[in-house]
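Appendix B. Extra example for self-study. Work through it before the problem class; the solution is given directly after the inputs so you can check yourself.
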Amino acid sequence: MAVNRSDGNEGFITTKVDALFNWSLKNSLWPMPLGISCCAIEMMAFAGPRFDVARFGAEVFRFSPRQSDLLIVAGTVTYKMAKVVRKIYDQMPDPKWVISMGVCVSSGGMYRSYSVVQGIDQFVPVDVYVAGCPPRPESLLKALMVIQEKIKSGGKAIADPEHQKVLME
Amino acid sequence: MLMDNIESILRSALGDAIVSVEEHNGQVAIEVMRDRITDVCRFLKEKLEFNYLSDLCGGDMLNFEDPSGRKAYLAIEHEHRPDRIPSTQRFMVIYQLTSFKNKQRLTLRVKVEGDNPVCPSVTSIYPAANWSEREAFDMFGINFEGHPDMRRIYMPEEFEYYPLRKDFPLMGIPGSIPLPRK
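Solution. Structure tokens for the complete assembly:
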């Protein structure tokens, strides 16, 4: 890859195709906003001008799963809704990631009852869980950044405690 | 005032359809014979201007104590127990009526059997009862006879239990609602 140097001479940088691909992937995640209940309000704030997810290249909210690669499940998932969540996940093209936003989605939260699924990881793989009821938009931005890190490192770094420490700083 | 002599009005018009009349802080609650609930509702709507059904719900009186201290019907114990309220009174359907014209409210109660919960539908009189009766059916398994569309309203149609019954566990029956495969 050729670059123009300030002294007028031509230089070059080297990279791997994978790294370039992952770099472009991580900076243009297109979320599928699955706003099922109140967490969706915070998700809207996350997309709006104050928190502005466009800074991370993920401002293109697609209301079609076929055009998205990041599923944000925002709100209580009942057993009846579980089929819909799974169907939307199945319709998304690979590669795809899932954010489980809020305690209801992650563990059933305060809805400890017969009608609410006690964690969506029972039927879809989840990449990042966001705590809170509802979480602040910053938490969701953080989740997005964690996913970006995960993509950048080829999906391996999240399990690595050293890398976790870097992320926390 | 109508409410002061509603008991005599109803008893003279409907006779033994009225089981009892209670009043608490000006709120009148009338217990009605199950099979006469449509007659009572029709009379209240057409003659006494109770033109609006603001709510209809079911209730499970399992383990409920009546004023004399008797415990209500236990699902497991079917044998005769004098210290228990008989199973014919396990469920209840509660109707909240409103009269816009007279600015009055009235509660009706109907006791429904535990073993074969059946109650006449009032949808022919109050169309608003349609979804409420479906909810009571979904949550308590009370069958409303004469309802035009007696299906579950919240739970999946293949669900086999009635989740607001007192003997239904809070967390449900494991595996009773299938989840998609991971």
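Self-check: The mean pLDDT of chain A is 84. If your reasoning did not lead you there, revisit section 3.
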